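Need a sequence for this fold. Nothing fancy.
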């Protein structure tokens, strides 16, 4: 083959190659892809930590304490007169009230709590009642504003079983009296007479410590 023919053949191949690259340029980009130019990276192995004790997480529970609300005092209850006074073992006052002496000295060591009361203007016999406190008082006030010079109030506290008198008091004109009683958990009643007074009020009270310890 002549030299001129070889050059003509090579030139034709080059021309065909150039035309092919012009028509399909992706062949050139595939030849320069990174995976053809650089070796693939070797994956790094992950190291598994050696087995060991698992830490225990401590959970602390906070206990919230609810404050205790003190029980409020009960309102004093009223003791009324009985509608059957003649069924009681004693229904008349003794002739001599002087033997019961003057008023006792009020308790000043602590607060007194009223738990019952009697309030009237006329006399009578009260209903039976019971007191749970080993020590309590009869705090009596007599009001006689219209005719104070003629006012008179008498009272005795009796056992309901036999009529035995526990305490007694007499207030002339008007004023107050204070009687300490130490009878509890038994049925009691009062015999009361009045003359020329507007009203009387007997408050049954006990020291705070007894009220807290023995209240129903």
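Here you go.
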């Amino acid at each position: 083959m002549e030299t001129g023919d070889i050059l003509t053949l090579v030139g034709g191949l080059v021309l065909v190659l150039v035309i092919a690259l012009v028509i399909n340029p992706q062949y050139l980009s595939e030849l320069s892809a990174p995976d053809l130019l650089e070796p693939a990276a070797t994956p790094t192995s992950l190291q598994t930590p050696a087995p060991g004790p698992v830490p225990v997480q401590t959970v602390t529970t906070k206990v919230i304490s609810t404050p205790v609300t003190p029980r409020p005092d009960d309102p004093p209850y009223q003791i009324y007169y009985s509608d059957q006074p003649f069924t009681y073992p004693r229904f008349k006052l003794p002739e001599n009230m002087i033997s019961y002496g003057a008023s006792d000295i009020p308790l000043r060591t602590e607060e007194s709590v009223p738990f019952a009361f009697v309030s009237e203007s006329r006399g009578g016999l009260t209903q039976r009642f019971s007191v749970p406190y080993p020590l309590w008082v009869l705090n009596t006030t007599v009001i006689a504003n219209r005719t104070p010079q003629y006012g008179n109030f008498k009272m005795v506290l009796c056992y309901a079983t036999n009529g035995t008198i526990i305490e007694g008091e007499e207030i002339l004109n008007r004023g107050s009296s204070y009687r300490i009683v130490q009878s509890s958990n038994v049925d009691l009643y009062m015999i009361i007479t009045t003359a020329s007074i507007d009203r009387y009020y007997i408050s049954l009270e006990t020291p705070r410590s007894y009220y807290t310890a023995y209240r129903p």
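For context: The chain has two domains: 3-33, 77-214.
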